[in-house]
Amino acid sequence: FSSVHLVYVNPSHMNNLTFQMPGTARHDREMAIQAKRNLSKTTDPVERLRLQCLAKGSAGIKGLGRVFRIMDDDNSRTLDFKEFIKGLHDYAVMIDKEEAQEIFQIFDKDGSGTIDFDEFLVTLRPPMSNARKEIIMQAFRKLDKTGDGVVTIEDLRGVYNAKHHPKYQNGDWTEDQVFRAFLDNFDSPYDKDGKVTVEEFMNYYAGVSASIDTDVYFIIMMKNAWKL
């Protein structure tokens, strides 16, 4: 499993999560390269959009969700075609109007002229087996100490030991900064709010999952990373 990159495990504190992140920089690079390579081979418009997002890294699909959320002025959680195409362009997705129209029509099932963007993002996520979804949920539940469906710095205090982080040890970062950097891994690069929802966590790991071929490897990677 060369594509999985675990950073900084301190064996003397195995009860705490002292690693940096399962599948970060090196892994993201490999996945992005793979996505770009596959882009030239596919003609399916939804798959092309998915690959363009994944080419931006594991948080790529979630990043598009953030752009859409910002555009949703009236909080309707829906987008019309004009908003949809503007969001894609703002996110620097290379797409022409015809292809965007084709994607929009696939999602506008009832022909209302609007699409539900939560549904859109779930469909855009690379497909995952139930076994993968279940292990991702186990990791999320371990992090979500308060059980409210959102992971915050407060949740991390009891689970993640910041004191072993090199930047904490050399005085560069406070404990809270270590926690925040950890949460930011799951956030879109453009809009980090220090909170991670189930959806964001799932979207992130759908990106990671896209470059790991077998369920067995994915599950071992998650178990090791999150001490499940």
Descriptive notes:
With 228 residues, the protein is mainly alpha-helical. It contains 12 helices and 4 strands, in the order αααβααβααβαααβαα. The strands form 2 sheets. A two-stranded antiparallel ribbon has the order 1-2. Strands 3-4 form a two-stranded antiparallel sheet. The longest helix has 15 residues. The radius of gyration is 18 Å and the shape is globular.
CATH third-level topology of the largest domain: Recoverin, domain 1
Low-confidence stretches: 1-23
- Order of helices and strands, N to C? HHHEHHEHHEHHHEHH
Straight-line N-to-C gap: 19 Å
Tell me how many strands there are.
Answer: 4
Q: What is the architecture of the largest domain at the second tier of CATH? A: Orthogonal Bundle
Radius of gyration: 18 Å
Helix content: 40-55%
The CATH homologous superfamily of the largest domain:
EF-hand
Class from helix and strand fractions: mainly alpha
Please give the order of strands in the largest beta sheet: 1-2
Keywords: Calcium, Metal-binding, Repeat
Protein name: CAPSL protein
Domain EF-hand: 59-94, 95-130, 131-166
Pfam families: EF-hand_7 (PF13499)
